[in-house]
Design a protein that fits this description.
single chain, 298 residues, alpha+beta, four-stranded mixed sheet
Length: 298
């Protein structure tokens, strides 16, 4: 894979392809490489490999790659990116590739000791590689022009985009995302239709800090509704386990933080937090009073 030598050189943007014979998807090669990089260089590589595992009762994976981060000890606050591409099948490959899989059950994990591929075998691996690379890179705008001409100036943006596209949802996200979306839609519907809090719907998206001044007669209703918003933030915080910093850095959690920071600017929400703050745990207080949300400290 070459990961070890790239880490030795302190590369911040790494793309590695793993084509080891790993039919059981135990990820022995990448696991060993991560351990060696940590032991020898103090580099911490975070990869969530679950999206590459076989679906239940299937030989297909949900994705061909995962994108994680690499943090060097001399630059702990500026992590880089690792794109880990695995030789795998997702079920959307060209017809001839899927046909070859039926003929060769080990494909695409034939032993690397086999150096005498047939024409069909060689072409199937070549075509799968082309498909995998296109599937992984094109969604982030990886045209020739984007890769070659703009990569020097736009590497951070490009790899960040790849990371956001190919992130693997945590177990908590798989379990609670539908419920969070449903509750969020309920809150938006109430803000849009409740006559006691006019203009609050727009304030939730603009982060209007002067909602109370514009609706003085509805201040009390606005503060009551703010309690519902704070309760929703509390639910997301607990169910996604955002007490852990690594969970907060996930793109899904960051998306909620963008929404929450806008709510935190609304004067009625800030008043609601001052009123109800003492009823919440200290860990939640620290979370919402951090840059992740931005509510005022007591």
């Amino acid at each position: 894979m070459g990961l070890y030598e790239l880490v030795r050189r302190r590369c911040r943007y790494i793309v590695i392809c793993d084509s080891e014979a790993d039919g059981g998807l135990t990820f022995g090669g990448i696991g060993m490489a991560i351990r060696k990089c940590r032991i020898d260089f103090g580099a911490e590589i975070a990869l969530d490999l679950r999206a590459l595992e076989h679906r239940k009762d299937s030989q297909y994976s949900p994705a061909h790659c995962v994108v994680g981060t690499i943090t060097y000890p001399e630059a702990p606050t500026t992590p880089g990116f690792v794109v880990y591409i695995k030789s795998s099948l997702t079920g959307d490959e060209p017809a001839d590739v899927l046909n070859y899989k039926k003929e060769d059950s080990a494909f695409p994990h034939d032993s690397t000791l086999n150096q005498w591929f047939s024409e069909s075998q060689f072409e199937s691996y070549r075509r799968l590689g082309h498909h995998v690379a296109s599937s992984v890179l094109e969604p982030a705008g990886a045209s020739c022009k984007a890769c070659i001409c703009k990569m020097t100036d736009g590497r951070e943006t490009y790899f960040d985009t790849l990371w956001r596209i190919w992130w693997a949802p945590t177990a908590e996200m798989d379990r609670f995302s539908s419920a969070h979306t449903a509750r969020y839609e309920e809150l938006l519907a109430k803000a849009r239709t409740d006559k006691d809090i006019p203009g609050f719907f727009d304030a939730m998206f603009s982060g209007n800090p002067n909602w109370k001044e514009e609706h003085k007669e509805q201040t009390e209703a606005g503060v009551r509704f703010s309690f519902e918003l704070i309760e929703f933030i509390f639910t997301v915080f607990n169910q996604l386990n955002l007490v852990l910093l690594e969970k907060r850095q996930h793109p899904y959690a960051r998306g909620w933080s963008v929404i929450f920071t806008k709510w935190a600017k609304i004067d009625a929400v800030r008043d609601g937090w001052k009123k109800y703050r003492a009823s919440y745990t200290s860990s939640f207080q620290r979370f919402v009073e951090s840059s992740a949300v931005g509510l005022p400290e007591d």
